[in-house]
Specification:
Layout: H1 29-37, H2 41-53, E1 61-62, H3 64-67, H4 70-73, H5 76-83, E2 92-93, H6 94-106, H7 109-120, E3 126-127, H8 128-138, H9 144-158, E4 165-166, H10 168-176, H11 180-187, H12 194-203, H13 226-236, H14 241-247, H15 252-261, H16 266-281, H17 287-296, H18 300-303
Helix pairs in contact: 1-2, 7-10, 8-9, 13-16, 15-16
Length: about 300
Amino acid sequence: MGAYSSSFVSNPKSNVAVASFSHPSKPNWITAHAIATELSIAEVERLWLRFEQMGANKDGLLTPQILASPSLSSDVFVKNILKCFKSSDGNISFESFLRALKWCESQELQVKARGIFQMLNNGNSIPKDIFQKILRRVYPEETEEEVKRITDVFFKAVDITRKGELDESSFVHAVLGLPRQRTQSILSFHILPDRMRQDVHNNLPEFSSQAAFHSPSPYISQVPSDNILKEVAEKIHRKDWDLVANRLGFFADDIDSIRSKNPDSTFKQAFDMLQVWKAREGNNAKASTLERVLRNASMIEASLLLAP
């Protein structure tokens, strides 16, 4: 993950950093962060509570002193993750914390696998003994002999060059070679749990039948345009888009065929799937149908593009 930290760690000296014009004591602290990171108020409020529980000071920072506390430094995995969130002054700002977790939520499977590799041994190749130590943490109830056996089996399958260590490409190849649905489930991360995201969707005034000014979306009873499908694809391609495909009536072979056409672009895969659905269903490819499928797949942000 360290190699990607520049994409989410904010510069504390920047005049556009939220901390440069707001403060935890100000009423705009939550809304300013929501606007800056393009997260919802509910997501920012939830993460602010977590950030405070981690020990954030009155200025909304996790300082080096706080990060050195036993609760944040005794676990090597937690320590390595938080290290990726630090700015040049050694602090972790709330804005960086938000951007990092948004990154974790939005990235596709391959990037997440590379991020995990970067975290495990500071981005260096993982020797067999280090990997065995990692597995001890993953399987604390297993005997030393069983952990060693799992390590040996894994290295025999993955360490093709027989160097006794895993580089990034070997590790990522191994992760992507696992059953995709299971891997997606393990690496899937949502800032708000599914139930809370659904509640947020249901309670937004513009989706309420009690709203004073309710204006139906012009797309809801129509066949969505390719431009709309592109926007939807942009929202879902880093997530489990094949779940959406399943719910739109695609079979595993169909999904594999779509992937094989664009192996290096999950966006093109998702967009192709949506176009195939639209062509297949014709006039029955209603925006309302796609909106419901996206919402039921917990892809609320994408569903809002089509919601009434």
